[in-house]
Amino acid sequence: MSKLRTFRALSPAEKFLLIEAALNQLLVVILIKCLPFRTAWRYLVKEEPPSASAQTTIPMQDIDSIAMVVELTSRKIPTSKCLARSLTMHQMLARRGLVIPIKIGVTHSETGALEAHAWVEYQGEVVLGYLENLADYKIFPADAVAATMVKA
User: Fold this and answer.
1) Which residue ranges does the record assign to the Microcin J25-processing protein McjB C-terminal domain (predicted)?
2) Per-residue model confidence as pLDDT tens for the chain (152 residues)
3) Which of 103, 129, 145, 146 is the one with CA 20 to 30 A from 38?
4) What are the sequence ranges of the domains in the chain?
């Protein structure tokens, strides 16, 4: 089935979600590339969760759907890496009233090189950015991320 036919077969809600993910991810990639990292981070990341009464609960199926379209659209945006995908997911969830901090961690590869990775967890489960060796990553404290990073 052609990609256009597949797209046409989607429900209006699924089309909207796919388009939202693609446009949001494109914006995230552009901001990361064009702005100093701290500026992009401040613009893209909602640090303060809403009050407990304002915090929304989203069904896990909806969170999985968002993660799926973020992964899907990232395949079409060549420079979209784990950070852009995580920021996109964070923004899409925040728009729906659910603020989840992005996890950023580092580890050493088998060759000794430093490797960084970004992912999103919800209720203790990785919903975007799972890696087999994720437990090996040392997570940066959330408040230290923007303060310590330079332009990516």
Assistant:
1) 41-138
2) 577 777 788 788 889 999 999 999 999 999 999 999 889 988 898 876 555 555 678 899 999 999 999 999 999 898 889 999 999 999 999 999 998 889 999 999 889 899 999 999 999 999 999 999 999 999 988 666 655 554 44
3) 129
4) 3-148
